[in-house]
Amino acid sequence: MSTTRIAAALRRGGRQRGIEDLAAELQQALRRPQLRQPAVVEEAMGIQALALLATLNVECANVDQLAEAASEAFRQHPDHAIMTSFPGLADVTGARILAEIGDDRARFADARALKAYAGAAPVTRASGRSISITHRKVKNNRLAAAGYLWAFVAATHAEPARHHYQRRRDHGDRHPAALRNLFNRLLGCLHHCLATGQSYDPEKAFPGSYCLVTAPAAA
């Protein structure tokens, strides 16, 4: 197979970056001498591989169908417009967040309770003169996983959120800790917006970061 055909197959499979380098690497791997099995065994292994790929295709189709059904139901929810106004919250991720936090306004007494439930708020332990601050291990793991994706997309595509994330990295946080801190901020804003019926406003959510991002460059 030529690198052109391999690259075309990678693009059909959804690959978007590093296609040419990966195509060349795959071509070299395919042309490298390999240990062989008897012809009958190789044919059987090929049929088995095709059967596994067919199963995988069915599962991917089921995932797409489930995502479409969840998105359709989420778009009919009265909180859809508020939640999707946040950066990083589209139909699928927004539906996951809403499914985990629920739409009962009295479920969480305040934003702090929601953050603790999601594992976004740190745990402070004091013993004598020592004080330790660690991440929360007892949490809703499904909500924490969705929040990680939410914060990652927001930090990638929204400048105020990206600036907040980078400021935490410069402060010394590792990547997971910085994303968790960003999720903590976004979750608090979401609780406030849902409680008051407001849409997301980056100037209010990240006042310092928003001013730095939108300030005109010095002459």
From TrEMBL:
Residues 82-166 form the Transposase IS116/IS110/IS902 C-terminal domain. InterPro entries: Transpos_IS110, Transposase_20. This is Transposase IS116/IS110/IS902 C-terminal domain-containing protein. It comes from Micromonospora gifhornensis.
